[in-house]
Amino acid sequence: MVITETSYDNLHLVTASSDLPDLQSKLESKFNINKLRKLLVELSEDYERIYIDTPPSLNFYTFSALVAADSLMIPFDCDSFSRQALYRVIEQVEELRLDHNESLKVEGVVINQFIGHTSLHQNLVDELLAEGLPVLPVYLSRSVKMRESHEVSVPIIHLAPRHKLTREFFGLLDALERAV
Question: Do residues 106 and 134 touch, judged by C-beta distance below 8 A?
């Protein structure tokens, strides 16, 4: 494992290998799903917070991350496909909680790609709230700035510090800090 410093204060990265898709079946058979948890225990001596970003699929890597995590945030793009995926993730979290990580907590559902002036998006969010899902109170708007940020590999808070989406991210961070 290589921990890479970045040009941003208090941000270090451990990147995944581009070979992971090819290695998945080998890793599943050889490695214990608790291996990442053990590594994070060691890293927690040096880091206050560790965030794991997983691909949007329920595979070995995601399960390993959920076994290792204290809590998770579930991104939700405002559409019916994401809604079904959200339910599947919540079901999987419940199963993992029973079998591998009883302290795993859904910190919240992050509303992403939100267009506030559309009734479709607002209705979807209202339905999630009515179902009792822990929807975080700040919704992240759809913006081309996010794609631009990805394109130039610069965090949006540095690329566009005054942009609406940047302010929403800081609002989301504040909401999470208050919850902890």
Answer: yes
pTM, two decimals, is: 0.85
Structural domains present in the chain:
1-53 (no CATH), 54-179 (3.40.50.300)
* Rounded CA Rg of the chain: 17
Per-residue pLDDT of 27-75, as tens digits, reads 655 567 778 888 888 988 998 888 888 888 888 888 889 999 999 999 9
- Yes or no: say if 60 and 29 are a contact pair by the CB < 8 Å rule: no
Q: What is the pLDDT of residues 78-128, one digit of tens each?
A: 988 999 999 999 999 999 999 999 999 999 999 999 998 999 999 999 999
Label residues 113-126 b or e (16+ Cβ within 10 Å = b): bbeeeeeebeebbe
Our measurement of the distance from residue 45's CA atom to the centroid of its chain's CA atoms, rounded to an integer in Å, reads 22
**DSSP H helices in 49-118:** 60-68, 80-99
Pairing mode, if any, of strands 105-112 and 71-77? parallel
**Per the structure block, which two tokens stand in for 91?**
């079901």
SS3 category, 53: coil
